Amino acid sequence: CSSRQNIDYPQITSYDYDAVLHEDGRPSEKYRKLQTILNVKASTLKSIDIGTYSQPNLVNRVNLVDVLDQVGEYKESASASFKFGSGYGYMFYQTRVAGDNQMEKLQLLDVADRADIYIDHELVASQYQKTLGQPIEASLTPDSLVQILVENAGRVNYGTRLLSPSEQKGIRTGMTVDRHLHFGWKQWAIDLTRLGNLDWQTSANLNYGPILSRFVFDVDRVHATYLDCSQLGKGMVLLNGINLGHYWQAGPTQALYIPKDFLKLGKNELIVFETTERDVKQVSFTNRQEVRINA
């Protein structure tokens, strides 16, 4: 990602933003204009085999909070800043806070890059960029459960902040409750390579938080396609165990490109990790990338 005024601006998964060739290899309008400007004779490009597939079937869903030990590396520590990582960019933190059945002020300290905060199974705040670390007022019981999903949205890959401490992702310092630093944390580094061993029949204790949804679809002829993400919220997708990338309803890209080599004849598996409260019950394919900014 790039960085300006101490704020990181992640790059999207697709590089298909005003490029000469689209991500699937088809020429863009810029390609044709460059041919004219450079007075280059038009050449016949290889045709791209791209299309759609039938709508995948939803076969399983589980809440992340119910399968944390199956998909995460678990550790306990006094401080939330205990250092261990996740190749998929998600850390899940959990702690108990003793309140007095009244409003209290909580505040995350030095967190990057995006945090979804749950208190007693309710999403109370989503913080990102300029809102990170803003105080949160919530009613706390004598045994309130606080859970936080932190997402690494990308690291600076050039410039003066390349080695900045801010490039250490997750909760770097901790959380205060009424100005006092809180201790006693459980942490999971989410590792989605473990999905192959996930028990999709795990029952839900309470239905809240991020959801893993498993879809299947059949392929009788292999060709490239796009997964339409315009109706999804924020998260990431795996196809046959391959990380397709992250999506965000804010845009600009509204689809994830799927090369034909990622697909196979017969049954294919698509797993959507949705981190917002968007209810993902169906997904579909499209034959083109759509660029739209919703934020």
The averaged pLDDT comes out at 89
- Going by helix content, strand content and strand pairing, the class is mainly beta
Secondary-structure element sequence? EEHEHEEEEEEEEEEEEEEEEE
The residue fraction in helices comes out at under 10%
Number of strands: 20
Low-confidence spans: none
Structure annotation, total helices = 2
- Strand residue content: 35-45%
> Which geometry do the CA atoms define?
globular
Side by side, the strands of the main sheet go 4-13-5-10-7-8
| Biggest sheet overview | 6 strands, antiparallel
- Termini, distance in Å? 18 Å
Rg value: 22 Å
Textual characterization of the structure:
The protein is built from two helices and 20 strands. With 295 residues, the chain is mainly β. The strands form five sheets. Strands 4-13-5-10-7-8 form a six-stranded antiparallel sheet. Strands 3-14-19-16-17 form a five-stranded antiparallel sheet, with no helix packed on it. Strands 9-6-11-12 form a four-stranded antiparallel sheet, with no helix packed on it. Strand 1 and strand 2 form a beta hairpin. The longest helix has 9 residues, at 29-37. The chain is globular. The relative contact order is 0.22.
